[in-house]
């Protein structure tokens, strides 16, 4: 059976395990980011429905085991497990993307959604992904694209100010989502992401711009 590791900033991880319990583990991560995701946990799925047009639910059906550094996110996910058939095979694990609780070469594929931008040590996160991947396997990392085109970056910031933050404000979370512009400005460009992947040991890396350059996906092979 193929095993796939899915790492959103909150991290979902599929493996061959069929259990569905919540297992705490020691964490090493940014306290402010962890607090943010704990705080928005009750409405996070609703916001994702609106902002991803429901696509995040399709992505989650691909998992088997789920790992996240936010305890509140895990509690919300676990509470929905018995009412959602597509979640019945998931084990929820509290853990850290910088210290994945898996042995070397555990996964046939890894995906990370809107997570690498938020970790406090990107090279370390990439090294951990490389470590738990099987030889010849790939990782796909989806996130906002830090475009080098002025028009694209201007459109991105306009959308955050006029779409994302107003939607979040309906849930009383406008201040929590205003960090997006700063985090994207501090993120890596596509070329820089490719360079990082190669530097930590991936054999190949290519970054694809999506949705008119607003989003990007790094695909790298071990």
TrEMBL record:
GO molecular function, one term: methyltransferase activity
UniProt protein name: Uncharacterized protein
UniProt cross-references to InterPro entries, sorted A to Z: SAM-dependent_MTases_sf (IPR029063), UbiE/COQ5_MeTrFase (IPR004033), UbiE/COQ5_MeTrFase_CS (IPR023576)
Keyword Methyltransferase belongs to the record: yes
GO terms (BP aspect): ketone biosynthetic process; methylation
Record has S-adenosyl-L-methionine as a keyword: yes
Keywords: Methyltransferase, S-adenosyl-L-methionine, Transferase
Organism: Arachis hypogaea
């Amino acid at each position: 059976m193929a095993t796939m590791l899915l790492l959103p900033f909150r991290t979902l991880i599929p493996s061959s395990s069929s259990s569905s319990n919540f297992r705490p583990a020691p964490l090493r991560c940014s306290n402010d980011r962890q607090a943010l995701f704990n705080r928005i946990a009750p409405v996070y799925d609703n916001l994702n429905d609106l902002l991803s047009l429901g696509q995040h639910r399709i992505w989650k059906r691909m998992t088997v085991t789920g790992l996240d550094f936010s305890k509140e996110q895990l509690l919300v996910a676990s509470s929905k497990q018995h009412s959602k058939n597509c979640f019945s095979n998931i084990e929820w694990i509290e853990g850290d993307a910088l210290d994945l609780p898996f042995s070397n070469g555990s996964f046939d594929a890894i995906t990370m959604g809107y997570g690498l931008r938020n970790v406090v040590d990107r090279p370390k996160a990439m090294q951990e992904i490389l470590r738990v991947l099987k030889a010849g396997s790939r990782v796909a990392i989806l996130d906002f694209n830090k475009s080098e085109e002025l028009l694209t970056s201007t459109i991105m910031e306009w959308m955050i100010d006029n779409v994302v933050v107003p939607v979040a404000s309906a849930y009383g979370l406008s201040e929590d989502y205003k960090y997006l512009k700063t985090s994207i400005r501090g993120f890596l460009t596509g070329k820089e992401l490719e360079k990082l992947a190669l530097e930590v040991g991936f054999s190949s890396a290519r970054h694809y711009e999506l949705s008119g350059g607003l989003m990007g996906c790094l695909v790298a092979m071990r």
